[in-house]
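Figure 6 in text form: structure in, sequence out.
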């Protein structure tokens, strides 16, 4: 279905959400039509944040908002859906557009498999009726379903469209850029060289894929790395948990800007604990690159100032390889909790692969190496 037809049927003038690769057509269309005009479109920090924004929109206008998300973000929105929107609480109507990763019977990455299996049951448990859209779905079918949904929305309930891969079509293909010259993979190469035999916890998306491929290219093995393939926004908490329990080991967290923003409260906990053996690095390309390149708020936020306000003893920002190398050496020499924002360009190699090991194998290798003191 053409995205123009789908959006026209929805008839909404406010969208909030977190970008998803299954919903690129919708995301690209919204950027072309609204950009990041907050009156009509907000790229949220996380899916619960999007639900709160949608609630505020309805309270202010009386109209029905649309929240878009990947199904992996359903967990982030459960609380505000159940304790804010639900008709037994405030009864706030909302339409959800959910990208269906890990659909049963469709090959996908391991972090999406279980989430894909529980997507429809979870929506059902939340009392949100769902209609699945695929490549064969006609506009008339969506229109008929919306007629049903409008009666529910008028009662303060919610409803969802669950979108299969390739179901929505839009011809525009944006080419986002941010003007920073330093490539992310190049920066990660310098970080891995500096980290030596220390522990590395890397965030969801292309950053972890680049860590894996750089180790492969250097024949270094993977026993020092934990690749956080799912649970976006939680790699820094994982790193803190390890650093607190193993104070004799240095831990490097390779975070992303979208991930850091998604659960920024983790930075407050890290700063309060002032874990001297933790180096927290945010690779900031100001975009949700792994799912299409839509912008994050990190282009207008001073992340190092936030880190200092959270209690990190040392926090700085770099935008060149020379500055990065100096920051890495200083962090190693100081042995105190350090935050480094690395401003890097958008883009990755076209032939960037994925780990050939399973998450369980990654976990086992990491824990075995830690136990041996490697």
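Output sequence:
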């Amino acid at each position: 279905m053409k995205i123009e037809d789908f959006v026209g049927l929805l008839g909404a003038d406010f969208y909030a959400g977190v970008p998803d690769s299954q919903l690129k057509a919708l995301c690209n269309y919204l950027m072309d039509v609204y950009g990041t005009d907050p009156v009509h479109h907000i790229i949220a920090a996380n899916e619960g944040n999007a639900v709160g924004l949608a609630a505020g929109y309805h309270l202010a206008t009386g109209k029905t908002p649309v929240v878009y998300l990947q199904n992996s973000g359903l967990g982030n929105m459960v609380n505000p859906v159940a304790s804010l929107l639900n008709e037994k609480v405030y009864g706030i109507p909302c339409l959800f557009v959910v990208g269906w990763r890990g659909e049963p019977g469709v090959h996908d990455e391991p972090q999406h498999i279980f989430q894909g299996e529980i997507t429809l049951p979870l929506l059902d448990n939340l009392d949100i009726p769902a209609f699945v859209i695929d490549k064969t779905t006609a506009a008339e079918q969506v229109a008929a379903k919306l007629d049903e949904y409008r009666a529910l929305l008028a009662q303060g309930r919610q409803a969802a469209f669950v979108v299969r891969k390739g179901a929505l079509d839009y011809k525009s293909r944006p080419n986002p850029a941010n003007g920073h010259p330093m490539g992310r993979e190049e920066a990660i190469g310098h970080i891995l060289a500096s980290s030596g035999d220390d522990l590395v916890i890397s965030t969801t998306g292309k950053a972890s894929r680049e860590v894996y491929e750089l180790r492969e290219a250097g024949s270094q093995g993977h026993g020092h790395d934990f690749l956080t393939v799912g649970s976006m926004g939680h790699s820094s908490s994982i790193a803190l948990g390890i650093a607190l329990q193993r104070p004799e080991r240095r831990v490097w967290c390779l975070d992303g800007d979208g991930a850091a923003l998604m659960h920024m409260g983790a930075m407050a906990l890290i700063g309060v604990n002032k874990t001297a053996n933790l180096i927290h690095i945010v690779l900031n390309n100001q975009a949700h690159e792994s799912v299409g390149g839509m912008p994050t708020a990190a282009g207008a936020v001073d992340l190092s100032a936030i880190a200092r306000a959270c209690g990190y003893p040392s926090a700085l920002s770099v935008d060149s390889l020379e500055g990065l190398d100096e920051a890495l050496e200083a962090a190693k020499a100081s042995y105190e909790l350090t935050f480094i924002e690395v401003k890097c360009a958008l883009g990755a190699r076209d032939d960037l692969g994925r780990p050939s090991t399973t998450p369980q194998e990654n976990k086992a290798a990491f824990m075995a190496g830690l136990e041996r003191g490697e």
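Caption detail: The chain has a mean pLDDT of 95.
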